[in-house]
C-alpha cells in the first residue's frame, strides 16, 4: 500500500498526473480543490477567512485516514506549501504502515502556468490567473519537501507519457 503526497503550483499538472496514477493503480484520490470548493459553495453568504482552508484540510485528512484504514492506496492532490502537510502525510503513512511517496509537479514557466489556469474549467477554490511573476516564483520555491524520504520531481512541461513510467517505478520502489 502507499500514500502519495502530490505537490506543485496550481496548474502544474497535479490533478492530471493524479488521475493517471489512479487509473494505473486503483488508488483513491483526495482532491483538496473539490473539498474546499464544496465547503466554499455551502457557505456562499458567509465571509471567507483563513479558517476555510484549515477546515477543508481537516476534511481532507479525515478522508485520507478513512481510506488508508480501509486498506486503500491514496493520492492527496494538493499543493504542498506547509511543513505540517508533509508531516501529517508521513505520520499517517507510518500509522497505517504504508509507503510514503512525494511527487512534485514542477513547471517553472510563468506563461505556460497562466495559460493552463486561464484555459481550465476552474472550481470555486481554484486560482484562475497569476498576476505577479514574482509571487509565482516565490510560491514555486516555497513547496515543502520531506527531508528523510526520497521524493520525485517531474517536469510537467513535458508530455505525461514521457515521465509516467518513471512515476510508476518510483511508486513501486
Automatic annotation (TrEMBL):
Task: Return one GO MF term.
Answer: ATP binding
Q: From which domain of life does this come?
A: Bacteria
Q: A Pfam family this protein belongs to?
A: AAA_33
**Keyword Calcium tagged:** no
Q: Which UniProt keywords apply?
A: ATP-binding, Nucleotide-binding
Q: What Gene3D superfamilies does the annotation carry?
A: P-loop containing nucleotide triphosphate hydrolases
The organism that produces this protein has a lineage beginning with: Bacteria, Bacillati, Bacillota, Bacilli, Bacillales
Is Nucleotide-binding there in the keyword field? yes
Protein name as catalogued: ATP-binding protein
Amino acid at each position: 500500500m502507499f500514500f502519495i503526497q502530490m505537490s506543485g503550483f496550481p496548474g502544474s499538472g497535479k490533478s492530471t498526473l493524479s488521475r493517471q496514477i489512479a487509473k494505473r493503480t486503483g488508488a483513491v484520490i483526495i482532491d483538496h480543490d473539490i473539498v474546499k470548493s464544496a465547503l466554499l459553495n455551502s457557505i456562499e453568504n458567509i465571509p471567507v477567512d483563513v479558517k476555510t482552508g484549515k477546515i477543508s484540510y481537516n476534511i481532507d485528512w479525515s478522508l485520507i485516514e478513512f481510506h488508508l484504514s480501509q486498506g486503500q492506496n491514496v493520492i492527496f492532490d494538493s499543493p504542498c506549501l506547509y511543513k505540517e502537510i508533509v508531516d501529517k502525510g508521513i505520520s499517517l503513512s507510518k500509522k497505517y504502515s504504508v509507503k510514503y511517496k512525494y511527487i512534485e509537479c514542477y513547471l517553472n514557466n510563468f506563461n505556460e502556468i497562466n495559460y493552463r489556469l486561464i484555459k481550465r474549467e476552474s472550481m470555486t477554490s481554484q486560482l484562475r490567473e497569476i498576476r505577479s511573476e514574482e509571487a509565482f516564483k516565490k510560491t514555486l520555491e516555497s513547496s515543502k519537501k520531506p527531508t528523510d524520504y526520497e521524493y520525485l520531481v517531474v517536469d510537467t512541461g513535458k508530455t505525461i507519457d514521457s515521465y509516467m513510467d518513471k512515476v510508476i517505478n518510483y511508486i513501486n520502489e
